[in-house]
Design a protein that fits this description.
binds pyridoxal-5'-phosphate; about 230 residues; 7 strands; alpha/beta; Aspartate Aminotransferase, domain 2
Length: about 230
Amino acid sequence: MDLMPRTIYFDYNATTPLDPAVREAMLPFLGEIWGNPSSVHHVGRRARALLDDARERASKIFDCKPSEVVFSCGGTESNNLAIFSTTQLLKPKGRHLITSAIEHHAVLNCFDCLEKKEGFEVTRLPVDSEGLVSVDDLKKAIRQVSILVSIMAANNEIGTIQPVAELAAVCRERVVVFHSDAAQWFGKEPFKAIDQFNADLVSVCAHKFHGPKGAGLLFIRSPLHPDPV
Ligand SMILES: Cc1ncc(COP(=O)(O)O)c(C=O)c1O
């Protein structure tokens, strides 16, 4: 007996089905377009032109520079890249990091690792009964040696939307890099431009809004140029 027609799927925060238009747009890349965009011959140059076009289009949607768009393989990789690469770059300045207690494990595990293996000090801000981080708590937590704050835009379990622009403004004033995991935010909230986050780094994940698994993006505001990891 086929049970699938009886299934009503309510778990869109876990993942969404692929939009048929997205599938259609991807098909050439599973077929005739297979070049390495770094190759100098025409097979590679064709792939490069299409990759550049994708970056250009992503940057238009974000209203940012194409060079500020880094493609990744999803939310987890975007978060790992954001956190490990900026801490690597900024550790000569200080070793204090701030996040919230309710981040996704793709963020929490990075901070646990930096604390246990690299000797960073991590402050995990508590949340109120609605799941909100307090701007005042963040202000109090920032110190001279703080280098990175990471607070998610929308929570994957209870849906709380954080006052990211306000939290980011505090960080900007104190010259601390601000990252936001927006994997659960895109596709659900009204979006005009990446500047509305006011953040230095923003993680995006395609499969949460009808894109494919294994595709994501990290916005990195120039001139921030984190170290490779
Ligand atoms: C808030 C949040 N961040 C990160 C991720 C991880 O994204 P991905 O599955 O693309 O690695 C998820 C996915 O559940 C998420 O909900």
